[in-house]
Amino acid sequence: MDELIQNIIEPSSLSEDTINSLHELGDLLRDDTNRIIIHDKLSILLPRFNQILSLLTNQNQNQNQNQNQNQNQNQLLMNKLQLETLRVIINILANNDLNRDFFTNLTPKLSEINNKKDSHKDKEKGGEFDIDIIVNEFWSIIKTHLDNYMNKIDHHSDRIIEFIFILLNQFIYDTDHKSQYLEFFNSLKIQWEIYPLINEDNIGDIGEFLYELLSSSSSSSSSLSSSNLLTETDRTFLSGKILLDIPINDLDEETALIIINLLSLNKPSNELYKKILQQIELYDTNESILIKRKLFVLASDLAPIYDDNNTTMIEQESALNISIDQLQSTNDPYVFSCCCITIGNFIHDKSSMEKALTIL
């Protein structure tokens, strides 16, 4: 393995030999023992990984200036290098908290990277690297790739995004340090680059990561810093895109559950309450009783009710009106039951009972 590492970090130029060495190293890292052994080499490997990935992003940004055969060949070489590099990193991270800890060394301050980078250039020549800087630089490059894909700068990176999603998922499975990693990614706000990329085809690949990340942010724990709380951008995503662009009735059960979990992070809202009632009616019970029941619970949770201090009387009355309207038009027993629960929750005294009876 040492020889492969030298083959990766020593040559001044990148070539097919580099790709072959990366591929062999990735194969070796499927073994738990090799993941442990490579830990002491990460500080010299990551700068090379950053170099490969940053060269790719720089090239992607300029690729429209000159389109010729040589550029296309170089692009293919760079894409292979990028995929093999990400595959190596994925295997480094798999089932190894020590290596994951390295890649989440400190809360990243990406705004400071450019200011610090020049002051650390000389360290590379001496074989020493500031770990804080190279880790932060790595995540900055990852975010650049997500941005490039979102802005259609790179038209060849579907698999790159797929690999980045796999890489991110390494931090939420089979780990004792999940809360530490989620705090790190919350400080990065990496989800903001992911939101515009979400669609029906990839929500199953990255949805669980987003749920873990956002549910940790939605916690009411006083230990959370302000940077780790759900932002307006997060709430806009939760309340809009994942429901409007990805109808639950078009998804398999596993992916539908991910969507429902994400939607459960919303605050009570009549708009969402009404939309979920519509989704319940559209969803075919023959597809999944579980999803139908989960949607039923979700709708009940999202309806503004009396004992919720965060809802106003106007919102509660609106939920009442929505429920009564639905009762008059639905043939779905789940919708009917949910509306009855909402009406029951609205009634808390004589005045509210009279209000409900008047509308009924």
Summarize, please.
This protein has 360 residues and is mainly alpha-helical.
Number of helices: 20
Give the averaged pLDDT, no decimals: 85
Multimerization status = single chain
Shape field: elongated
Helix content: 55-70%
**What is the structural class?**
mainly alpha
- Number of beta-strand segments: 0
* Strand/helix succession: HHHHHHHHHHHHHHHHHHHH
Separation of the first and last Cα atoms: 75 Å
Low-confidence stretches: 107-128, 220-224
Largest sheet: number of strands, sense, barrel closure:
none
Overall description:
This protein has 360 residues and is an all-alpha fold. Helices cover 68% and strands 0% of the residues. It is built from 20 helices and no strands. It has helices at residues 2-9, 16-28, 32-37, 42-62, 69-93, 97-103, 113-117, 121-125, 131-150, 158-169, 178-188, 191-194, 203-217, 232-244, 253-263, 270-282, 289-302, 313-329, 333-346, 350-359. It is elongated, with a radius of gyration of 25 Å.
